[in-house]
Amino acid sequence: MCIDYITDRGPVRAIDHVSLDLERGEFLGVAGESGSGKSTLAQGIMRILPPPAVITGGEAIFEGRDILTLDEEELRKLRWSRMSMVFQSAMDALNPVITIGEQITDTMHAHGDMSARAARDRAAELLEMVGIPGDRLDAYAHQLSGGMRQRVGIAIALALEPTLLILDEPTTALDVIVEREILEEIRGLQRKLGFAVIFITHDLARMLQFSDRVAVFYAGRMAEIGPAEELRTSPRHPYTQGLLRAFPSVHGSTVEMFSIPGTPPSLRNPPAGCRFHPRCPVAVELCSKVSPELKQIGPGHSAACHLAK
Ligand SMILES: Nc1ncnc2c1ncn2[C@@H]1O[C@H](COP(=O)(O)OP(=O)(O)O)[C@@H](O)[C@H]1O
Ligand SMILES: [Mg+2]
Q: Helix 116-129 and helix 146-158: axis angle, to 10°?
């Protein structure tokens, strides 16, 4: 899939020839620095990209069909019922004037026939599933903590039993303990209910703990993808290696991340060759000239690096 943002100063390619295969019931983590194209990818898969984004090529196969060729009507049937998404801002997107129970049942009514009673029972069940007592159905968003509101967002996304749940940095605004609880909850639900997950975050180390497989993005391209255990113990792309060496250092009350020197490139004018080469500690001349293809280096493990073997 290729996705461009059409701007006054020309197109910006935010997703550059990325393809992903997802197994049924698999938990895929997607990691990369801010601006690497993670949200664009997620919204591209859901086909909910706002202008000026345009999908300019490739395919996105979901349950045997290319989502990129479906019309609005077909997409409407697919979205939320087969694949659904939780946004970083889901907790702020809840309607403040109707109860959380109504917001969950609204989703169910919008997509199928269900009696009011059955919908309410199901909403309570969904809340319990995400760790909120079912009797909070009549609560309003402002009565809940950020973590609880984000869980309501997850309950809404799961209301129609999708086979794919995409979560775009759903825990970034929350503290690390709440983040861990929510991740464990999603992992548990995914194992129990069997849906597939694409979980997006800038936190690679966290993804390696929770995912079956992890994809690492850099400047709109996939740098590396492989089994989580494999990436944890033998990352092959210098970018992945750099992200894993990034560690928090506590000075008094502030925490600093020591990470890869330099900043990600602008996608308006990305470096020639490998996009990571200006920041790469092991780059050779070839890296500044020729863009490396994503190539297989082990079972289910691929990296886009000239030096990876
Ligand atoms: N509305 C927009 N207009 C132009 N370019 C955009 C817009 N939104 C995103 N982009 C470009 O797409 C890139 C990827 O953005 P995004 O998918 O939000 O990254 P991430 O979610 O990894 O932080 C950005 O670095 C930027 O170059
Ligand atoms: Mg994003």
A: 130
Q: Please enumerate in sequence order all residues whose Cβ is within 8 A of that of 128, keeping only pairs 6 or more positions apart, or say none.
A: 134
Nearest to 169 by CA among 73, 270, 85, 277: 85
Rounded distance between C-alpha atoms, residue 5 and residue 12, angstroms = 5
**Residue with tokens 């060759």, as numbered in its chain:** 273
- 202 C-beta neighbours (distance < 10 Å), count: 18
Measured by CA distance, the residue closest to atom 7 of ligand 1 is 5
CB neighbour burial string for 33-53, b if at least 16 within 10 angstroms, e if fewer: bebbbbbbbbbbbbbebeeeb
Domains in the chain with CATH codes = 2-82+162-303 (3.40.50.300)
Look-up of token digits 């859901």? 46
Pocket of ligand 1 (CB under 6 A): 5, 7, 12, 14, 32, 34-40, 52, 267
Reported as a single tens digit per residue, the pLDDT across 202-225 is 889 889 999 999 999 999 999 999
Residue identifier of the C-alpha nearest atom 14 of ligand 1: 37
Distance, in Å, from the CA atom of 97 to the CA atom of 89, rounded to the nearest integer, reads 18
Read off the pLDDT of residues 257-304 as tens digits, 9 standing for 90 and up: 557 888 899 999 999 999 999 999 999 999 999 999 999 999 999 999
0.70 cut: is pTM over it? Answer: yes
Instruction: Report the atom number in ligand 1 closest to the C-alpha of 34.
Output: 23
Report CA(136)–ligand 2 centroid distance (Å): 30
Torsion angle of C-alpha atoms 49, 54, 59, 60, degrees rounded to 10 = 0
